[in-house]
Design goal:
Number of helices: 21
Shape: globular
Radius of gyration: 32 Å
Structural class: alpha+beta
Number of strands: 20
Strand content: 15-25%
Number of domains: 5
CATH superfamily of the largest domain: UvrC, RNAse H endonuclease domain
Helix content: 40-55%
Length: 611
């Protein structure tokens, strides 16, 4: 799909129901995920916008050529589905919380006798998760308190009625020091153990009064039954809970549950801060960084943060305070109320103690964002020394922040492949590396192969509207350089600086100048270039070997310049294996017909380098 008439035809078949839509580029990649009460009307507003079309939207729609829709029964269902798709695909034009895979959660397992521990991996097996936690110090304190206060197991034993009846397990040290209630030997009933786990959940959620009331009730029950030792243990648990929570900042004289949320924005980055207030005490602070916020309104960013934060959080409080007046969509309000099981008020406090606390939340968001931006700038400055040197050595008009390097790998024209590696600010971006199987060149012609790979790569970047490299490096000499330059001319990209690095003497050539550039071998810029060139070569060779292995044609000897099929067969027949060749001396190898000492030395050096 690539024209408005086709878009109009497809739009006419879209239903006017609630649902989710996916905007895609020509390669089927999802660029944006949205929800709508009326799918057809919302999609028409994307493809046929008014005069005051935002810059960010216009940039996105230049790349959109197709869309898919998913119809739902309600707007709330659409909201949930939208959040799922954004988390899964992380589309470029949605506002995204930075990848939270590194954030830890507290997991309460779905087992007969549950465990409670910290994890970074979500397993959909019925376990309950609390978090994510962005402050490791607070999380350590919480887990330490749980271990000291609640006698729950930490072992990984599989415990059920059969293992208990069969006496398969014995209690460990934790039982003897009061840190475990001994479910493995049946020293506690499953019902009583489950009650302790629910107390842990209440403790994690900050429901102190509910937890203490339940513990006091149990303590009185034990005392009335003259089970004084057990009553004393529960009493100690009550004291420990009270002592732990006494360190929390009291922010409200009433036992309220609320979250206070503020978002600070700067360009394409933002930071959202959440104060968790439980029963009048601030028990935690979380902060999350966001990307893709450029050209977005602050209200839009705040709404997006609310959706993504509560999609990840198990608990929704009765009140949510925000740092600015915002029109919250009804479907979001309805979804939050449904998740909580009751009404949820979203409030902007304007005066008094609540407004002052909200201002503190906002100040923390601004400070954390500034710290993040400073760290970002520091990382750029720390990495930029070789890049600056390269700009100076090659007399480039600007710093080559993005460098793409190309290499070709083939044996007598067979299984010819190409590679491109991407470096940003002197660092490899392996997720952006790409491989190519040569499609248009028969036989041995490295120049045409290089031209094909360069053209396929740059044409795709140009068509996608992706950022083009600041410098292109091709592995080879003047022939490869000339082939690549013709492609830049054909694609009207001559303004991109282009160089070639010849293997033999590590000489650097640029278009239009027959002599190599005079770059000192001690220059960090040249060292960076050679590292990038070697990485492109490694990546191409790796792909080439994989293809040969797939067809049973692989031999590491094929990768040594000067070794063809005849010499490879002779070496293997004489020595029996590449390992024997590797451990042989240069003189031994040079005794073979057609192999001089120079080639023998190259063979030994290559095999020892490879393994």
């Amino acid at each position: 799909m690539n024209n408005l008439s086709t878009i109009k035809e497809k739009l006419s078949g879209v239903v006017r129901n609630p649902g989710v839509y996916l905007l895609k580029d020509r390669y089927g990649k999802i660029l944006y995920v949205g929800k709508a009460r009326d799918l057809q009307a919302r999609l028409r507003s994307h493809f046929f916008p008014g005069r005051d079309e935002p810059k960010k939207h216009a940039s996105m729609m230049r790349r959109v050529v197709d869309f898919d829709t998913i119809v739902t029964d309600s707007e709330v269902e659409a909201l949930i589905l939208e959040a799922n798709f954004i988390k899964e695909h992380r589309p470029r034009y949605n506002i995204n919380l930075r990848d939270d895979k590194s954030y830890p959660y507290v997991r309460v397992t779905n087992e007969n006798y549950p465990r409670v521990f910290v994890t970074r991996k979500i397993v959909r097996d019925g376990s309950r998760y609390f978090g994510p936690y962005t402050d490791a110090g607070n999380l350590r304190l919480l887990i330490s308190a749980i271990r000291k206060i609640f006698p729950i197991r930490t072992c990984r034993l599989h415990i059920d009625d059969r293992t208990i009846a069969g006496n398969r397990h014995r209690v460990c040290l934790n039982y003897h020091i009061g840190r475990c209630s001994g479910p493995c030997e049946g020293l506690i009933s499953r019902e009583d153990y489950t009650k302790i786990v629910e107390q842990v959940v209440s403790f994690i959620q900050g429901k102190d009064s509910t937890l203490v009331a339940e513990l006091e009730k149990r303590m009185d029950l034990y005392a009335n039954q003259h089970r004084f030792e057990e009553a004393a243990k529960v009493r100690d648990r009550i004291r420990a809970v009270s002592m732990f929570r006494s360190r929390q900042k009291v922010v409200d004289e009433f036992s309220v549950n609320r979250d206070m949320i503020a978002v600070a924005v700067s360009g394409d980055d933002a930071c959202g801060v959440v104060f968790n207030v439980r029963e009048g005490k601030m028990i935690n602070m979380h902060h999350f960084y966001m990307k893709g916020t450029k050209d977005s309104l602050e209200d839009e960013i705040l709404i997006s943060f609310l959706k993504q934060y509560y999609f990840r959080s198990e608990f929704v409080p009765r009140e949510i305070f925000v740092d600015r007046p915002v029109d919250v969509p009804e479907d979001l309000r309805g979804w939050l109320a449904g998740k909580r099981g009751g009404r949820v008020d979203i409030v902007f406090p304007v005066r008094g103690k609540k407004a002052r606390l909200m201002a503190m939340c906002r100040k923390n968001a601004e400070l954390l964002l500034n710290e993040f931006l400073n760290q970002k700038r520091s990382r750029v400055e720390a990495l930029a020394t070789p890049v600056k040197a390269l700009q100076r050595d090659l007399k480039l008009p600007k710093q080559p922040i993005i460098i793409e390097a190309f290499d070709i790998s083939n044996i007598s024209g067979k299984h010819a492949v190409g590679s491109v590696v991407v470096f940003e600010n002197g660092r490899a971006k392996r997720g952006k590396y790409r491989r190519f199987r040569i499609k248009t060149v028969d036989g041995i012609d490295d120049f045409k192969m290089m031209a094909e790979v360069v053209e396929r790569r740059l044409r795709r970047l140009k068509n996608e509207g992706s950022k083009l490299p600041d410098l292109i490096v091709v592995d080879g000499g003047k022939g490869q350089l000339s082939a690549a330059f013709k492609i830049l001319e054909r694609l009207s990209l001559k303004e991109i600086p282009l160089i070639a690095i010849a293997k033999r003497l590590d000489e650097v050539f640029i278009p239009g100048i027959p002599e190599p550039q005079n770059i000192p071998h001690s220059s960090p810029g040249l060292r960076l270039l050679l590292r990038i060139r070697d990485e492109a070569h490694r990546f191409a060779i790796q792909y080439h070997r994989r293809l040969r292995k797939r067809e049973g044609l692989f031999s590491i000897l094929d990768d040594i310049p000067g070794i063809g099929e005849k010499r490879r067969r002779m070496l293997l027949e004489h020595f029996g294996s590449t390992e024997r060749i590797r451990t042989s001396s240069v003189d031994e190898i040079a005794k073979l017909k057609g192999i001089n000492k120079s080639l023998a030395a190259r063979i030994v050096e290559f095999l020892n380098k490879e393994g």
